[in-house]
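Think of the structure tokens as a kind of shorthand, similar to the way a musician reads notation: each symbol stands for something richer, in this case the local conformation of the backbone. In the example below we present two proteins back to back. Begin with the first one, reading the sequence and then the tokens, and try to describe in your own words what changes along the chain.
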Amino acid sequence: MPAAGGTAANDPRRRVPDLPHPLPVAVVDNHTHLDVTRDGDPVTDTADALARAASVGVDRVVQIGCDLPGARFTADRVDRHPGMLGGVALHPNEVPRLAARGELPAAYAEIEGLARHPRVRVVGETGLDYVRTGADGVAAQQDSFRWHIDLAKRLGKALQIHDRDSHTDVLRILQEEGAPDRTVLHCFSGEVAMARECVDRGYHLSFAGTVTFKNAQALRSALSVVPLDRVLVETDAPYLTPSPWRGATNSPSLIPLTVRVMAGVLGVAVPTLCRSLSDNAERLYGPW
């Protein structure tokens, strides 16, 4: 809702960002939610969103469904759109709610079935979130994280991890369970020491529009120590819109803004970073 005295026209959430200058080499949006609509926004037209992204050099996406409706959406859309691969899981904030209703075993069974789809290449996003779920949900989240790790390994899928204010436990559980060979920290939010540990363990780190924010110097410092063969870029759309459009609705078409900031932090030319981002995604998920 606009501030008192304002209008929808000057509410940054309602502004439609201009398309950025296209990237010189096509890249992958490693993590987006085309099934999710923010309050007051129209429903996303998948084909239109993918076409707009492709027009600026984002010709492939990984669509993530992290509840049952989203997972069903994902399994359906990956068959319709050749530029889309999918990931399915139960988000850590979803798990305690399902457990309280006695619906978790059935939800796990459905997620496992959807994860077997040949174009669903990711189990995720799973992990831990100690911000939106209180202490009473921690045990359920941790058990669910372990279940998803096991599923990724049994099916030979990549794992994408949600980690919000839970760095220590995420790394501990990955160590205890044994991480899949292809493990990604989505929307990486740690600092330099955590980035170095993840790299040492063989994980990939995916950076969202947050890396462009003025107050995100610690995140940019973390990015600076990630080798080019371990780095990915994502939107987490419709959230985490990069500067200068922070507050507006995000979409895969805004990836170029994040890529150009990342290239500056890493001290490489934009085409060089783009090639690495594309190669890394194809190595993790296979060909589109």
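Once you have a description of the first chain, move to the second and do the same.
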Amino acid sequence: MMGRGWRLPFRLLGIPLSLDPSFALVLPLFAWLIASQLPAYAELLATVGLQVDGDALAQGLTPYLLGLTAALGLFASVVIHELGHALTARAYGVQTKGITLWFLGGVAQLEEMPRQRGAEAVVAIVGPITSATLGALLALLLGNVRMGGGATFVVAYLAITNVFLAMFNLLPALPLDGGRVLRSLLALALPRERATAIAGGVSQVLAIGLGVYGFLSLNLLLMVVAFFVYNAGRAEVQYETMRRTFEGRRVREFMSPDPVTVDEGMPIERFRALRTWKTHKLYPVVDVDERLLGVARITEAELAEEGVPLRTLVREADTVRPDEDMELAVRRLAGSELGRLIVVDRTNRVVGILAKTDVIRAMEGTR
């Protein structure tokens, strides 16, 4: 669901922080939405005893500056929420690859979910607890520190939003925290795959409900969230099937062995001709000693000028060893731009290819 994004030049508690390209769209969008609804927010705050002059704050550029500040504070709150997950996972010995902010908030990318019984529930529940605690601290700040109207609005907005964030994440729908708590608790009595299937079913029912409500209320954002939850819940079920299929297995058991390779000195015309008798989109390119140099795509060869040597089209390959863990290889394959891993031995000679079709074939064989 997310692109590669931009890595920020610093780490938070040793954890990399990235911005998905969608963040460049959603930040100004949220800033504008907050600014445009500032008077309505002021009326809402009045119901809880906080007097903010909405008309005064709606003058000139002030609402947009407040909207931008509140939007930045919202995403900072999301980072703190995800840090709660990351640090709890670290306590179980699991590291976090990074935290990414994107269109629908943020995600802490754990290397894997802790395998101890009930650990997933603990890691998941810390997120809402962190958000609720942050909301309470901001509310406490409002009650004990005198601030101007703009500062009062921003702090109050973040206090309310953090409480809402905690409540929303407690919905029992994967991949939300509540869904992970549900799956983890079910797994105490059921096989994990069965627990995931049940949690996934609950997720899809809730997603449909959210989608219908969003449609009837003309809430586009809610419909987008419902679409995300529905598909993410299905993906969790599929991932669990994949994990069970490949756990403890090796790449050599599932790769396509002895693939066709091409020599770096092959004329470009001969390489193009491969499309007439093979359906492969790319081929491993080897040197005179049969060692892997990279891969070349047929589509790029078709666009190349006549007489161009094949070696000029070679690009870096994603490689894996035949004795590597298949479950980890599938995760790498999912993030591979090429859609396949070239399997090489210790001398860097090509012994196979692991493609997404090999994974699908193996998973279908388990049904």
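Compare your description with these statements about the second chain. DSSP finds 13 helices and eleven strands in the chain.
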